[in-house]
Amino acid sequence: MSLDDADKIVPQLKLAKMIQGLAPADKTPSGIILMAPEYMKNLSTILSGTSKQVLLTHLLWKQIQAFSSYVEADAVAPLKQFTNELQGKVRSNVIFHPTSIDRDRTQTRHQNDGEPALDMWTTGLAGF
Amino acid sequence: MDEENFDKLRAAYDACLDEDSIRKLGIEPISRALNETSGKFYEDSDSALSNTLLHLAKLGVSAFVSTGTGADDKDPDTVVVSVSAPYRIGLPAKELYEDEKVVSKYEKVASQVISVLYPSSARDSSVYRDLVEFEKRLAAASPDAEDRDDVEVRSPM
Q1: Which of A68, A122, B38, B75 is the most exposed place for a label (fewest CB within 10 A)?
Q2: Going by C-beta distance under 8 Å and a sequence separation of 6 or more, which residues neighbour residue B61?
Q3: Which of B50, B107, B151 would you mutate first to test chain A, the one with the most A CBs within 10 A?
Q4: Residues in chain B with pLDDT < 50?
Q5: Cross-strand partners of B109
Q6: Cβ separation A36–B142 shorter than 8 A
Q7: Against a cut of 0.80, is the pTM above it?
Q8: Residue A69 to residue B46: CA distance in whole angstroms
Q9: What ipTM is given for this predicted complex?
């Protein structure tokens, strides 16, 4: 699918501009694969029916969830606890205190898995 | 070269384990990052949302869509760019949005954490309920886990 056609499906996101912003300066993708076309169409409808404040709150919440493991503060404790509960690690009436062993495990996982999107982009598109 | 890489790895590892420094910094770095995001979002421009998503994507945070690259199924020497539904709307699985106990807890956690890290959101407490309802709609619209990466449902190049 051409970038322009993808743009028309979810115009609010300006996908062509986003993709170009992520690609290396000297590369222009000739087209993209747009997965889940039904979701994309629904996304456009959902976005236009949602207030800016809620959209921003969602984006900030995504950012918080992505980086909370790097933060040591009481403020993020409810999120860390909730995440562990969902993973079935801890009973809900036990307070979770992160220890050095957990930081070591987390850091090893971060270094093994790497930071996602950017590395994939720069190595992937360099192959064009 | 190996020594450079090793030093880099060690520095990153030591930084992560330097709990005292990390605790001293507290929420300041992430609050600053959130303010940067909201700054881009509120720019007076048609591209504000798009620019904000681009900014987040560069940080490794996918929202609304997930972008990536890979080898073309039909021609492995060609790199293709794909845009798909996000792997995760918020809760780890879309089905969890149908569990009212989980959703209610999730909303409470979101309000507790966001109101401290980004205080201006707390001005209107109904935003957290709206946030969860919004994510429910996204979850309902998103493909099931097993269909997510299904080649058959993708739009042709």
Answers
A1: B75
A2: A62, A63, A66
A3: B50
A4: 152-154
A5: none
A6: yes
A7: yes
A8: 33
A9: 0.88
